[in-house]
Each structure stands twice: as C-alpha cells, then as structure tokens.
Amino acid sequence: MAGTSDKTHSSFLEDDSTADAPTSSHDLLLGSFDPSKLHPMAGIEDKLDYLLLDDEKTSDLPGAGTAIPSRGWSDDLCYGTGTMYLSGLALGGVWGLREGARKPLAVSNARLRINSILNSVTRRGTFIGNSAGCLALVYNAFNSSIDHFRGKHDTYGSMAAGALTGALYKSTAGVKPALAAATVIAGCAGVWSWIKRRI
To answer: Tens digits of per-residue pLDDT, 139-163?
Structure first.
C-alpha cells in the first residue's frame, strides 16, 4: 500500500518536471507571456482584455487622450484613489519618521525611540493617506461628472473639480478655509492636468 502511494507521488512530480520551464520576467515584459500557462483549469487563454490597453477600449471623450490612458470614470476613480492613498501614506510615513526621530524623550532608550517613531509614523501616515484618498475619490467623482455633462475632458473641468473638492473638504471650517482649500486643490488639479498633456 505504501509503495503505490510513493509511486503516485513520484509520477506526479515527474509530470510536473516535464512541464514547460517557468516564464521569466524578461518574457513577461516583452509580451511573450502566455496567460493560459497560469493554470489550465482556469480556461483564461487570451481573455485578459482588461490588462490590454487597446485604442477602442480607452475613453472616447475629446481631450481624454493624455499620457495616462483612461477607460472611463471607474478606471480613474480606482487608480486615482489608490495612487493618492499610497502616496499620502508614504509621505505621512516620512513625516512621522522625522517627527518620531526628533521628539525629545524623558529617558534615552532605543526601545522608547523605536516606539515613538512607530507611533508617529502610524499617526501621520494614516492621516495623510486617508485624507489624500478621500480627496482623490471626491475629485474623480466631480471630474467625471463634469466631463460627462460638458462632453469633453480639459484643464478647466479638472480645475473646477478641484475647486469643488477643496470647498467641500473644508466646508465645515468656514468660508475662508473653504476658499483657500478650493484655490489650492484647483491649482494642483490644473498643474496635474497640464503635466499629463505635456508628457
């Protein structure tokens, strides 16, 4: 009985060793990767359409053809929010690292210093990351709505979306902070839109 299970196990290993060699990252980057080799039971073959950026799949709004191609509002919403969240997390983490390293401690101890750094990183990183992610979420919702109603994507629509986002973000703080935030975020949106068109 034990001999048959060993034979089955060894034949299973022999079948795996005769399969094609693993695809290297070089093959993946050159586009010679065959998605059907991921797992034969998945039946994927060449149906990974979402990973391919064909011209007919991108947004057809006038002015939407920038350096960063878009498939529409959901694409912008997902990528924009995720990118801003991770960027804010990294920026806040660096800010927290600097703050935790400079914070004076009552007792100079390596464990206390590491604890201070970790506390500052998690406090600042999550604050900046969550704020940036929420701002990007609202901005992309406004931007896609404005583009839909105007029928085109341009810098002015992006700046209007930025102004609305900033005003909404600081609306509970009063009129002056809301106007200041609207101006800053509209300026950032205008610069980002200009950079995307120039690349």
So the answer is: 988 988 888 788 777 888 889 999 9
| Radius of gyration in angstroms for the set of CA atoms belonging to the chain, rounded to a whole number | 25
Instruction: Enter the pTM of the model.
Output: 0.63
Crossing angle for the helix pair 175-198 and 155-169, to the nearest 10 degrees? 150
Q: Where are the beta strands (DSSP E) in 49-147?
A: none
Indicate the residue type of 30.
Answer: L
Closest CA to 142 of 91, 182, 93: 182
Q: Is 70 left (phi over 0), alpha (psi -120 to 50) or beta?
A: beta
Report the alpha-carbon distance of residue 187 to residue 161 in Å, rounded: 11
At CA 52, angle to CA 51 and CA 55, rounded to 5? 140
Q: What is the DSSP letter of 76?
A: H
